Amino acid sequence: MEIEYQYTREDFIQFNKSYCAYGLRKRILFILVFSTLIPLFSVNGKSLNIVRSIVLGIIILGVLLIVYYIVPFVLGRIRINKIFENEAGISEHKKLTVINEGLLIDSESTTTTRLWESMKSAIAVNGFIYIQLADKSVIVFPDRFFTSHAEKVNFLGLIQNKIGPAKPASWKPSHLNQRKNPSISWVIACLIPIVGAIMSIVILADGASRYKEKWYILLGIGGILFTVFTAFLLLKPINGFLKEQTAPFAQMNVNTLMKDVEFYKMKHGAYPDSLKQLDDPSAPIYDAIISSQLNGNKTVQYNYKRVGNHYYLFSSGPDGIPGTTDDIYPQISVSDSSKFGLLHK
């Protein structure tokens, strides 16, 4: 059996699309599960609200699509340009002949023999026949190389009969080879906040399942540990900054709540047992300082306790601990303090 063919730039462009789409389909379940489940929980295990979950899920989905499709596609196009710039023989007219030993490929400048023993599998996907070699490179034959569908099927059947049935292959294209070991770009990506954590998990999954390469696995683990360490270092000062910025809001809120509590007594003859009993449904009963922390907690109320005909009302302050010196109480003048039931600890 003989086939004459000649590669064009368009063949490689279409192959690049097919290759990237094939890789994306292999990981689509992982992408969907990862982008759906992870946003349901914050870093400390508490549920995020629905809006943040959706936004975070979209961000994660976008990052994974970029990692698994956009980046390989762009890198593939760059390699294609380099191939046609640097390899003069890539577009030569070639003739493939099936011989007893394997496949004989003749061109104007070279003659190459691919032995049956060097081939691992042959499959037909998305308008191409891929023959995977032992070194994980791939010989590609677009459908247009064949004069008919029958010829394509006969060729594929002949190859599979010689090398055995096709096996699921994590193949690499021969002219679009990717580095097996992590490149510096992957290392840099792991150091990017938020994105680095996702990239590290992706690299770890690839290293364990696809490449079985220890350097990928170590890089993924290192990226995750770096992200956790960085988050630990940054979370506390960020929370401290947020607390300081929200302290004035907490002061305004407790001032407003005191008026609501006093109004409640004027109307009902006694102070409420809890802030939720206030007549104003829009009363700011949740502590602005505690709610500003990066912990997903949204339901911490201002400290309130009724004591007979008096009550305590205050914010726990920037340290988040009630009963300390930075607690924030309603602001009232000393001369007016006897008119109200507010107590200070």
Question: Can you offer a commentary on this structure?
Answer:
- The chain has helices at 9-37, 50-86, 149-163, 184-190, 195-211, 214-268, 288-291; strands at 2-6, 93-98, 102-107, 111-115, 119-125, 128-133, 138-142, 303-307, 310-314, 342-343.
- Residues 42-48, 166-180 and 293-297 have low confidence and may be disordered.
- Helix 2 (50-86) packs across helix 5 and helix 5 runs antiparallel to helix 6.
- The strands form three sheets. It has a four-stranded antiparallel beta sheet with strand order 1-2-3-4, with no helix packed on it. The chain has a three-stranded antiparallel beta sheet with strand order 5-6-7.
- It has seven helices and ten strands.
- By secondary structure, the chain is an alpha+beta fold.
